[in-house]
Amino acid sequence: MTTTTRADTTNPQQPALDASVIAAVGGAERPRHAGPVGASMTYGWRALLKIKHVPEQLFDVTMFPIMFTLMFTYVFGGAMAGSPGEYLQYALPGILTQTVVFITMYTALTINTDIEKGVFDRFRSLPVWRPALLVGALLGDALRYVIASAVVLTVGLAIGYRAPGGVLGVVAAVALLVLFCVALTWVWLIVGLKVRTPNAVMGTSMMVLFPLTFVSSVFAPPETMPGWLQAFVDVNPVTLLVEAARGLMNDTADGGDILLVVLLSAVITAVFAPIALRLYNNKT
Amino acid sequence: MTSDLAIETSGLVKTFGDTRAVDGVDLAVPAGGVYGVLGPNGAGKTTTIRMLATLLPPDGGTAYVLGHDVVHEAAQVRSRVALTGQFASLDEDLSGTENLVLIARLQGYSRAAAKQRAAELLEAFDLTAAARKQVKAYSGGMRRRLDIAGSIVVRPDLMFLDEPTTGLDPRSRNQVWEIVRALVRAGTTVLLTTQYLEEADQLADRIAVIDHGRVIAEGTSGQLKASVGSGAVRVRVADPTDRPALATLLAESLDAEPVLDSDPASLSFRVADPTVVAGALHRAGEHGLLISEYSLGQPSLDEVFLALTGRPAEETAPATNDPGNDPTRPTAEEVPA
After folding, report:
1. CB contact under 8 A, B126 and A116
2. B263-307 tens-digit pLDDT
3. Do the bridges between strand B206-211 and strand B214-219 make them parallel or antiparallel, or are there none, so unpaired?
4. I need a surface site. Which of A189, B150, B264, B288 has the fewest CB within 10 A?
5. How far is Cα B310 from Cα B301, in angstroms, rounded to an integer?
6. Chain A residues with CB-CB distance to B92 below 8 A
7. In chain B, which residues have their Cβ closer than 8 Å to the Cβ of A126?
8. Are B243 and B197 in a shared domain?
9. Are residues B114 and B93 part of one domain?
């Protein structure tokens, strides 16, 4: 029963896997496993493949921004700044920031889903630098942030937004956003590693992200808010991020704000990356 | 640490809260061939494998895999073993080819070599037709084969197969068995967990029976079966009220203790001498006891358990509460150490 050969493939009851399997196994060379960079790039490639196979996951990345841009401009614009056009000039950098900050939570969702499936065990039993999976996820996420930014900017341009800071200002603003959000992603990785189900991830992230993005200077100048709220807005990192991005896009760049965002990103990474990596390594 | 042992563990312990999922497991798995770990759900099989594959740090005891300590030399262990989990360790969103290319790239193949290796494995595992389909659309048997293919992109010296045939139809099960035999012939040592005595019997050179996180018996399948009795007779009566009478009658003619199943119409015996069975059943007919079904066969896992532990396997398996054995959610109940 075990000495079947290829000639036996005509018998459907006992497919002759044996001989071909032995051949395939025998043909395996033993290359030196991928280094940290190679492995991270490979996991990044996996993130791209997932976008290719499940394009719906870009739905959130593209539809939310379009909706937000149109809704806020036309619904609140007139009331807030006299006309939608004027409000757009104020709000677009904010909407851009909010959009990208919001989609950082999908990182938590992705890692959590991975863990729930057996594929996580497979990856962790491979002889490659373990954090590569997380770094690869970050690379994929950075791409999503860029896509989302492009969507918001396109819609904004189409309905009349003009950036005084020019192309350079806009590119710099997006780069700053991506930098900050990649740092923020480490926090979401921790959430993804700690929380039990993808649904719980969604719930947790909404609870954090809504106040964080709305109670800031994203949609309205803080001067119009009551004092106690202003106190929160002032310490909200999203406010800082919006102000820095808005400065770059409006050609009123504030070097101090930008430096602060870069520093904050570095601090967030320095604090949370080791925690995420530690949790990931000990994840059972 | 002896070099001819693929796995050597001593007093291996893993606890989850109050549960001692693995409670002092000693294993000595020789290199080459298939070693079976047999036990019901929740016995600690999966937890043991996860510790040996460096996915879970042990809470006590020592484990050497291919001569390397699983805690301090995890990297060396990982470069020589492969794990095929109880539920397919695949990315369901990706196609079969992409899954294999991904693993091959991580193992260090160049882009072209990875593609070639993936194609070769898909061909060998009869998956070429489905190569471009997303794994989501695969049947259970196809997933299992792809999963095993993923484990041998680089042929491991030791392969862990966690319940490779649970939930498969007989044809897919036979294919998996063939693959396991082929792997062994290529020189890989296979550690296989299973709930089925038949599977262990078909494949394994030696078997360890695990219950409540402990090894309760170890040996070749012949040795284990000898400890259970040479055969099992199972009988169902047409009318459940006849069961006590039949039990008494058969106990006498078979010279064996009746085992009353939870099914009120069925009972079983372990017999040393299968030749007396036909006569005994005939006598039952003469006494007007109507038998609707009977079978004479190898002892089942239940019977092995009964023989080894004095209680049926089911009682030992509150499976779903055991975090170590619920691999659909390997992380559900566990707190990172």
Report:
1. no
2. 888 888 878 777 888 888 888 888 888 888 888 876 666 667 677
3. antiparallel
4. B288
5. 13
6. 117, 119
7. 78, 103, 106-107
8. no
9. yes
